């Protein structure tokens, strides 16, 4: 059976080597209509590498209500011949991939930076999803909003009505592993996982499915060791993730590196990442499968290097799996 062509919007595609762009290319190659987005007035210039392939691009800052509204307007007009009502236009799949990453001990992290991370990784996802929800919902819901849900009960006796679109939130294994120096980022992704679970329950009666992708390590460029697929971070090929510590940081004297900028567990993070194109292929398969059928999709999809191990540890409740004892020297090898 040939799958119907879908309209897909992906946030956070500014990096040519990142997972957002890789997903855009993968869906485009499969014949779907893709809108890749990036923030900033020069977004279209930044995404030239995608427009050259025939992929549609939009400016979209997930922290800007005006930017979000403009993107919704473009998609609505392109899919409904310029209609004005909320029932006009449609979007089959929304992929919330845009994200910010920060690497710092909690004792040193700037609170302004922490707020910015949460504003993008959590509030931004909610804002974009709220705005595009009318385009994701089945048209008949808008025409008869007072009609009670007539979906068939699932195995838990809940009424579910599908026939609309799919929301995909890109989270991270950091939400479950909570490694040192990743506290703010991990907390934002844990919040995103919780947000996805609630979306899944609340959107089901509206005909919209929700899936959270728990991403592990994904290689984005030659010489990198591991990264989060939705972000670009400073990397060291030999040591893994790096960060710049304040000169008065408590951790300056607790690391073995002379520059004091090696995060805990850095030596243990030098595992082989999953190639970004392979990650995109696997996740695209998962997303397209989740967007069809009458059954609810799996709430969490684990992909990327280390994801399987993280899933096992989470399943068994090994909360202290990354504990290195009371001696900080244990953290760095």
From TrEMBL:
SUPFAM superfamilies (UniProt xref): NAD(P)-binding Rossmann-fold domains (SSF51735)
Q: Which GO terms describe its biological process?
A: phosphatidic acid biosynthetic process; triglyceride catabolic process
| InterPro entries assigned to the protein according to its UniProt record, in alphabetical order | KR_dom, NAD(P)-bd_dom_sf, Sc_DH/Rdtase_CS, SDR_fam
Q: Which UniProt keywords apply?
A: NADP, Oxidoreductase
**What's an example GO cellular component term for this entry?**
endoplasmic reticulum
Domain (Ketoreductase) ranges: 6-223
Gene Ontology molecular-function annotations:
acylglycerone-phosphate reductase (NADP+) activity; triacylglycerol lipase activity
**Gene3D superfamilies, per database record:** NAD(P)-binding Rossmann-like Domain (3.40.50.720)
Task: Keyword check for Oxidoreductase, yes or no.
Answer: yes
Family, per the entry? Answer: Belongs to the short-chain dehydrogenases/reductases (SDR) family.
User: What is the name of the protein in this document?
Assistant: Uu.00g050530.m01.CDS01
